[in-house]
Amino acid sequence: MGEFDLIRRFFTRPTPRAVLGVGDDCALLQSAPGMQMAVSTDMLVSGRHFFADTDPQRLGHKCLAVNLSDLAACGARPLAFTLALALPEANEAWLAPFASGLFQLADAHGCELVGGDTTRGPLNICITVFGEVPASGATPLLPTSALLRSGAQAGDDIYVSGTLGDAALALRALQGTLTLPNPLLDATRARLEQPTPRVALGQALRGVATACADVSDGLLGDFGHILERSGLGAQIEFELTLPLLAARADFAGGTALFDAQWGRDTALQCVLAGGDDYELVFCAPPSKRDLVAQAAAQSATPVTRIGTMRAERGLLLLDSQGRSVSRASLHLASFDHFAAAGSP
Amino acid sequence: MGEFDLIRRFFTRPTPRAVLGVGDDCALLQSAPGMQMAVSTDMLVSGRHFFADTDPQRLGHKCLAVNLSDLAACGARPLAFTLALALPEANEAWLAPFASGLFQLADAHGCELVGGDTTRGPLNICITVFGEVPASGATPLLPTSALLRSGAQAGDDIYVSGTLGDAALALRALQGTLTLPNPLLDATRARLEQPTPRVALGQALRGVATACADVSDGLLGDFGHILERSGLGAQIEFELTLPLLAARADFAGGTALFDAQWGRDTALQCVLAGGDDYELVFCAPPSKRDLVAQAAAQSATPVTRIGTMRAERGLLLLDSQGRSVSRASLHLASFDHFAAAGSP
Fold first, then answer.
1. Which residues numbered 86-115 in A keep a CB inside 8 Å of some CB on B?
2. CA-based max dimension of chain A
3. Domains plus CATH for chain A?
4. Are B226 and A24 in contact (CB under 8 A)?
5. Average of per-residue pLDDT across A135-163
6. Which pLDDT does position A335 carry in this prediction?
7. pLDDT at B339
8. Which tens digit of pLDDT belongs to each residue from B61-96?
9. Complex ipTM > 0.95
10. How far apart are CA B223 and CA A316, in angstroms?
11. B11: DSSP letter
12. What does DSSP assign to residue A20?
């Protein structure tokens, strides 16, 4: 199978929304007047972002999901994407389910594949995704209605969507650092391998949230970007996040038995610094609690309030008694692709 | 050096044309009203598209150049790009010159880096580039002024820009299948490693050329896309392309000695099927010869007329006596990343 056969058979589909899709030197996109194009790129490397033997259908889903999650974090509506694929060989038994997982998610969000590149090489998947947001909006510094990491105000509530930490728990099990019974492994592994980008919630939060980021490298790490870009500090009641670990909340034996078996510290580490969640962390003023609840209901996405933005820099982690606890005492690290393993 | 340090130190620069550049979940672009966004992606893999020890400054240039070449082939004006980079390690001695080569070319074309991704992994560079073209134009089937691979008409002249085959000659020398004296190796190697995307010519050809493609995988292979998409055939006077091999044309000993030393067949193979040229091949009606000459002069890019489009399908290669010569007799192959080595 040649390069052009490969593209034709697995990655060429009608693109009614693009002016021109796959098959020329460039694709042509036209955003509506008064709209801005939101663009994001994520590269997934075999052995680093996924195990080499990951189910290709799930992998096809995931590599687009992580990009859609960036659009969600900006409140953008997905339009189109390009796919660059380095493959050790043109293996149909891998390509067909990969394409199926990819397009199933793409279709669910009306996001069209408009071009890309294929080459031989160590397995590497690079997607660039395009979305749109209205050009004028509530952002004080920029003429955009996109949700940015900057823009949070002191006194804002801090929220997180969905559930947290299950993907990290699965990763530990797959890496062999802990053992999970099969039903629990299957459930958490689905979270790791088929994350749900919060596209509808992101769009519903436009004009409501003051700042937003997606949680890909761990809650505290990604929330740290909001702190930095907004020039603020925050307090997070970290124990409010513990019930968001679905594996623990839904554990048949109860949460106490879960903690006895796998450790409450492990649960907290997964929730606060686990990575691969693809949830949204965002801020909104207390005056907009009803609107946040409305956005959550409208997008059928649960959200949980976990803290408050502060004018003083720094992140306070408060326990249920309101005592500040150090990050080190919780053994928390966020993920950084080039930092030494385990460094904060 | 961590991931965010790496981005901050080497890949964060002001982006006055983008609404929002590096540092958030997405970049925000706004095309002018009545304009379309042209998008293209190319992935370069170490050991396949470049030697692992390639000068990083040249590599930074090349990985953007091959993408700008796709914009050129569409007649689009460069706006912005994203960069996804998998690196075995965060090596400053490599990153600094890589970034320098990248930004030197980007600045020359007013093309802003607006976002991307960095990760650890086998060296892989994936750039997605954005340009713009007026939304309405001369293309009969699509509301665009972009140059497409479709659109050529029977009777159109066929042109190619610049020089051809020098990159392929250098590649053969570097792979050890032939030997070049040092000055010739240096000159051809510069063509291989620092190609010149024909951005100004591409824009000047809007409204003049009926079809256009960039030559990345060999002249005949890429011209074949125009034939296929335009549903036509062509005749190429292939010996008209031989003088385009600069190494041969400029050879101190003269072209006869060049042919005696390295073979006229080798020269023809490099010119017709060599790859890595990043020139433009395009079609225009004979009535527009003056306009083609004007576009060439305006963009300071030489162009050479090499044949004629025909209604009958198939590509005829005519020698200087007008005799049709088979592709096989010239030992010509075009490059395909997944075909067996040497297959046509």
1. 86-87, 89-90, 114-115
2. 64
3. 3-134 (3.30.1330.10), 157-330 (3.90.650.10)
4. no
5. 88
6. 57
7. 53
8. 999 999 999 999 999 999 999 999 999 998 999 999
9. no
10. 62
11. H
12. B
Structure tokens at A99: 């394409």
Alpha carbon distance A153, A149 (integer Å): 11
Using an 8 Å Cβ cutoff, are B106 and B112 in contact? yes
pTM above 0.80, yes or no: yes
Task: Kindly state whether B152 is in contact with chain A, defined as any CB-CB distance less than 8 angstroms.
Answer: no
Q: Identify which of A338, A206, A205, A330 has the alpha carbon closest to the alpha carbon of residue A274.
A: A330
**B133 in contact with A, Cβ within 8 Å:** yes
Q: A105: helix, coil or strand?
A: helix
What type of residue is A93?
A: A
Sign, Cα dihedral of B61, B100, B123, B27: negative
Which residues have a Cβ under 8 Å from the Cβ of A181 and sit 6 or more positions away? Answer: none
Residues from chain A contacting residue B228 (CB–CB below 8 Å): none
Collapse the DSSP code of A33 into the 3-class scheme (helix H, G, I; strand E, B; otherwise coil) and give the result.
coil
Extract the tokens encoding B147.
């140059």
A144 touches chain B (CB under 8 A): yes
The helix/strand count (H/E) of chain B reads as: 11, 12
Q: In what order do the strands lie in the sheet with B279-284?
A: B211-215, B279-284, B157-161, B303-310, B233-237, B315-318, B324-325
Distance from CA of A24 to the nearest CA of B (A): 6
* Residues B311, B316, B319, B321, Cα dihedral to 10°: -50
Give B68: exposed, middle or buried? Use CB within 10 Å, 0-12, 13-18, 19+: buried
Which amino acid, one-letter code, is at A11?
F
As beta bridge partners, residue B44 has B125
User: For residue B82, which residues of chain A lie inside 8 Å, CB to CB?
Assistant: 39-41, 128
Among B130, B111, B134, CA closest to B36: B134
Min distance A33 CA to chain B CA atoms (Å): 6
3-state secondary structure of A162: coil
Q: What sign for the dihedral angle of Cα B172, B176, B179, B183?
A: positive
A5 conformational bin, left if phi > 0, alpha if psi -120 to 50, beta if neither:
alpha
B window 179-218, beta carbon within 8 A of A: 212-214
